[in-house]
From TrEMBL:
UniProt-recorded name of the protein: SAM-dependent methyltransferase
Record has Transferase as a keyword: yes
GO MF annotation: an example: S-adenosylmethionine-dependent methyltransferase activity
Gene Ontology biological-process annotations: methylation
All residue ranges annotated as the Methyltransferase type domain in the record: 46-135
Keyword terms of this UniProt record: Methyltransferase, Transferase
Organism listed in the record: Paenibacillus apis
Gene3D superfamilies: Vaccinia Virus protein VP39 (3.40.50.150)
Keyword presence, Methyltransferase: yes
Record-linked InterPro entries: Methyltransf_11 (IPR013216), SAM-dependent_MTases_sf (IPR029063)
């Protein structure tokens, strides 16, 4: 892996090529969140945690002016290559400031990487105009519980590692996240917490691709490269009864969807 292809952010390693080639369902599912955003011509919108920019592009089709922001430089690099007519920048969702406020902040499948949910929501608040909307989907309480449990069991039983301390994700309950937003001054216009089993594609290899893309960095940072593959195979074997059916893997996604309005 070259420096251009990957970057350590915390311990997560973002590989833009793998993300686009093997994890393309992330943006596909996000199209429903763009519908919820309902962008209008002339609106200024921030796509927070834009990855390689597919949904930034989707939002821009409405005629809105969109800025895509992501912490991972390789993702922004790839986004700029794919969509040179759009604006992208590297920025940290937990601590960012915009030059001028926007009509809406959109975020798909990104906020669960921000352990400090309050700081991220507070930055969103500061970025919005009064009356502006925050439209987001990310992992809620119970998200990928079977995957996390299988990782935990293998790491603990076979290697004596406490996986809990390595877990990089923030999966709040609907109540917890709504309170957080209300404390900042948002009005919750819509909120839902629902199961969305997500087909990982690639048949037998689906979960291994997912684990390589999202979990190997944070959970297996201490392992030799050669050993990582063995660990992931063991995790997949353990998770198989629960998550594999009819030749495909289904991740046990549980989503939080929120529309919150910055009170005037
Ligand atoms: C998710 O989209 O729910 C997710 C993706 C990567 C890691 C954890 C959760």
């Amino acid at each position: 892996m070259t420096g251009e292809e990957a970057e350590m952010s915390g311990k997560q390693i973002w590989q833009a090529g793998l993300y686009d080639e093997k994890l393309g369902y992330v943006a596909e599912y996000g199209k429903g969140v763009v519908e919820l955003l309902s962008p209008k011509p002339g609106e200024r919108i921030l796509d927070l945690g834009c990855g390689t920019g597919d949904l930034t592009q989707e939002i821009s089709k409405s005629g809105a002016e969109v800025l895509g922001m992501d912490l991972a430089e390789p993702m922004i690099h790839q986004a700029r290559n794919k969509y040179p007519h759009l604006n992208f920048r590297v920025g940290n969702a937990e601590h960012f400031e915009l030059e001028s406020p926007v009509d809406a902040v959109f975020s798909n499948a990104a906020l669960h990487w921000m352990k400090d949910g309050r700081s991220a929501a507070s930055s969103v608040w500061n970025a919005l105009k009064p009356g502006g909307r925050f439209v987001a989907e990310f992992g809620g309480k119970g998200n990928v519980a079977a995957i996390v449990q299988s990782l935990g069991t293998i790491l603990e039983q076979d290697y004596g590692i406490d996986a809990g301390s390595l877990n990089p994700w923030y999966f709040p309950s609907l109540g917890e996240y709504s309170v957080l937003l209300e404390e900042l001054g948002f009005r919750i216009a819509y909120a839902a917490h629902f199961d969305r089993p997500t087909k990982l594609g690639a048949g037998e290899d689906g979960l291994i691709h997912w684990l390589n893309g999202f979990a190997a960095g944070p959970f297996l940072a201490g392992f030799e490269e050669a050993e990582k593959g063995h660990v992931l195979q063991k995790v997949a074997k353990l998770a198989k009864t629960e998550l594999f059916r009819d030749g495909e893997w289904y991740a046990d996604y549980v989503r939080l969807r929120i529309v919150a309005v910055k009170q005037q």
